[in-house]
Amino acid sequence: MRLNSVTTRNYRTLHDLTLKFSKNYCTISGRNNAGKSCVIRLFSGLFGAGSRYPWRSAETGFDYKEDKTQWIKQATPIEVSFTLGVTKDEDPALISFIEKIASKKIDKQSATLCVGYSISESDDISVAVSVDDDKVDDKAAKEIHKRIKDSNLLFLYNSTTRHEEFYFGRGRRRMFYEFVMSTDEKKALEDAGKHIERRLRKLAKEHTEGLSKILGRLTEKYDVEVSPLEGIAASEMPLGINLRDRNVEVPLSDWGSGTQNRTHILMAILQANRIKTTGSPDDKITPLVVIEEPESFLHPSAQAEFGRMLRHLSDEFGIQIIGSSGNRVGNSRGKCGWKPHGYWLAGVS
After folding, report:
1. pTM value?
2. Mean pLDDT of 87-99
3. Domain that holds residue 91
């Protein structure tokens, strides 16, 4: 999937704006408070950007009171529209879903999908969807919107936000990331997990018998049941990360902030590419990667190098990467020898 454009009216500081994006790497640049974060927030409205962890909250969707342009006094609705490009090779699951739910045959290899929102003062949200300029009915529009939002298509990484992806092993806190597995890999691990689960249940039974004997000495009687965690092999698995520099191997959490941040961004891109390359036709929809302040904590020379790398990875993997930055051309002006497609947001004076 590619995000081709976004148009807003009466949304925060983006009162009347249209942004068009290149199909691979592009940047949104501007001074502080120009509206870069507002654009990123818009992406969450369409794609969702909820946390994998239920105890963490994430801001998604629209709220009229919070999102309306404050200097517009009339109670005019907030209007946002997204134009998306989908193909049968990269997004077969979404195209087949649209064909089924909208009763519309897509004959071409690619299609243009337009998703529009209108948010009223009472927070009523209407959704309109068109496929190749052909509007679908309201019921189909809501189902297509839900499918896009539920598919976790946005890999959103904020370089300035603290990331709590840690676990404790051998008494030491370690940083990890979760990698996505293919269908065959999931099955192999599930089979191995079932074997481990059987062994654990046997051990649990032995512990149950011992605990029952001890508790049986009490006046109050208890039934004891001990069971292992179910579903040992999940769809995502944690891996620790070490980086080796010459002859020294150090956990990622012990490296500098710039190295940590850069590595996490690259992991997000690899995750998106893995979804694109391992997904089955029934569930494959190519995600996009959005990075806030990718140059954070890096030396200027490293910023330029990393900017070039992001562009090359986007071209190589065929994945759209959108970066937001305070620099005019996204970290890499001058010495890098290339200039990505990008926008400079002037902000509100």
Report:
1. 0.74
2. 94
3. 2-163+280-345
